[in-house]
Amino acid sequence: MKAILRPFILSVIILMFATTSFAQDLVSNPVAPSTLDDVESGINTSIDLSMLVNNGVVTGSFQGDVTARLYYFNGSAGDVVTISMIQQSNDLDPYIVLLGSLGEVIAVDDNSGEVNLSAQIRNVVLPVSGSYFVMVTTPQSLSGDVAITTVSDSELGYLVSLSGATTPTDVVNFDPDTYAVYTGNIATDDIVDGYSSAQEPVFYFLYDGIGGDSVNLNLTSGDFDTALHVFGNGGDRLFVNNDANGTNSAVENFNIPETSQYLIFATDARFEEALLADGNYRGGNFTLSISRPGASV
To answer: Would 169 be classed as within a structural domain?
Structure first.
């Protein structure tokens, strides 16, 4: 089934919210961002992620094929936040990406932390009240260029901390224990079109997976070098691919581990450089498909 995703969703949201033009549907557990004013969002479920609490510290590790993890926090417009990732393993080079609910890249960092090689996004002003993603990884494995390799079952540990975030008071019906982001939806046998822009380089999709099924995911574009990320419950990035077929990305024979929703990032291989005027980010139109192995796309 082929869907022209962004124009369709955009027209629906314009009808519902008058002058508000969003690229993706709001999905949450549920929380309505402040830009929706008094409009209540629909109740949807999303993947379970660990929440970063203000002035708290989260312990995590990478092991095996898991080379990135997604967290979230809620903050208020004007908050000045600092996010740190400190390695607990000598072989780990931390990297942080701060993303907005529409797929905006708010900030990135590699080596600005107080500990050698550690990462810190320091004193960043949040543009709007609502939910934010924090992606932790390494610069080498960000978009699948080089995967972290571990010896046997060894773990590469890290600490993540957040400060400066406050609970929004300007969001109607806000639940501080949940998150909300705008996504497209895709199902098996679907083909959807979207786009990546410098303002919103990452397009979020939700996929309802059936445990035990095997599917192929393909992200193609004639405009830019694509990267495909798949996250599961707990925020673990289960797969990442860049350049499986030229500049196109693919995840073949993905064995769905459990019946659940999965979060997909469809983006440019250099989405983190969307903030740079002279960076390698390009963006443009893309097509994402999910099919059963052996099916024609």
So the answer is: no
The CA–CA distances, whole Å, from 231 to 71, 209, 262, 263 equal 11, 12, 6, 5
Per-residue pLDDT reduced to its tens digit, 203-239: 999 999 999 999 999 999 999 999 999 999 999 999 9
What are the structure tokens assigned to 248, written together?
Answer: 């196109």
Are residues 273 and 208 part of one domain? yes
Rounded to an integer, what distance in angstroms lies between the CA atom of residue 297 and that of residue 219? 12
Buried b (16+ CB within 10 A) or exposed e, 106-130: bbbbbeebeeebbbbbbebebebbb
Considering the domain boundaries, does residue 6 fall inside one? yes
Distance of CA 211 to the CA centre of its chain: 22
Look up residue 222 and give its two tokens: 């004639």
